Automatic annotation (TrEMBL):
It comes from the Archaea. Keywords: Iron, Iron-sulfur, Metal-binding, S-adenosyl-L-methionine. GO terms for molecular function: catalytic activity; iron-sulfur cluster binding; metal ion binding. It comes from Thermogladius calderae. Residues 30-179 form the Radical SAM core domain. Pfam families: Radical_SAM. PROSITE patterns: RADICAL_SAM (PS51918). This is Radical SAM protein.
Length: 179
C-alpha cells in the first residue's frame, strides 16, 4: 500500500497490496448470491442528507478515503469467481462512495467483463459524461443503474448537500445512455 497522502481534510489511501475480502467499504463483497459487489473507491463528491456512511467532502467523521488499484481489484474478483466455482452472473460496481470517481472505471469494467457474464454500475449519474458513458459501453457494461432522488433542482441540491448539483446534467446523461 502506498503512503497515504493528504486529500482535503483527510487521507487518501491507494490500496494495492492488502486482501480485498472482508471490508465493507472497498473490495469484493459476496453476500451469498450470484452477484458480487465490487467497490473500487470510497470517494464521493456529495454530502447527501440521508447518507448512512458519512461520505462526502464535508464528512464530520471520516478520516480516510480509499481508492483500489484497478488491476488489484480485478485479481480479487477473479479469485472470488473461482472460489464460487463460477457461480457468479454479475459484478455490480457500487460503493459507499461514488463509483464513477474511480479514474480507471472503463478499464475495470472491461476486465470484469472477461470474468463474469454481466457487469453493472450503480451511480448518482452526475459524473457521467457522454465520453465516459461511451467508454463504459464499449468496455462491456451491461446495465447502468442511476439513482435519482428528484427532478427538482433545488430539492436535489438539498438532498445531495452540494449547491452545484444539476439535475439537468443527470437527465442528459440518462437520455444519452438510452439512445
Amino acid at each position: 500500500m502506498a503512503v497515504p497522502r493528504v486529500w482535503g481534510n483527510r487521507y487518501l489511501i491507494h490500496v494495492d497490496d492488502i486482501p480485498l475480502f472482508g471490508h465493507i467499504a472497498f473490495g469484493v463483497i459476496d453476500r451469498g448470491t450470484n452477484v458480487l459487489q465490487v467497490r473500487s473507491t470510497t470517494i464521493c463528491p456529495f454530502n447527501c442528507v440521508y447518507c448512512s456512511v458519512d461520505a462526502g467532502p464535508y464528512s464530520a467523521r471520516r478520516q480516510s478515503e480509499f481508492i483500489v488499484d484497478a488491476d488489484w481489484l480485478v485479481e480479487w474478483v477473479r479469485l472470488a469467481y473461482k472460489l464460487k466455482r463460477g457461480e457468479v452472473l454479475e459484478a455490480l460496481l457500487d460503493g459507499v462512495g461514488e463509483p464513477a470517481t474511480h479514474p480507471s472505471l472503463p478499464k475495470i469494467v472491461g476486465e470484469l467483463k472477461k470474468i463474469v457474464p454481466r457487469v453493472a454500475l450503480e451511480t448518482r449519474g452526475f459524473l457521467l459524461t457522454k465520453d465516459l458513458i461511451t467508454r463504459l459501453w464499449e468496455a462491456g457494461l451491461d446495465r447502468l443503474n442511476v439513482s435519482i432522488d428528484t427532478l427538482e433542482d433545488e430539492k436535489a441540491r438539498y438532498l445531495t448537500g452540494v449547491r452545484w448539483f444539476n439535475v439537468g446534467r443527470v437527465k442528459e446523461a440518462v437520455e444519452y445512455t438510452v439512445k
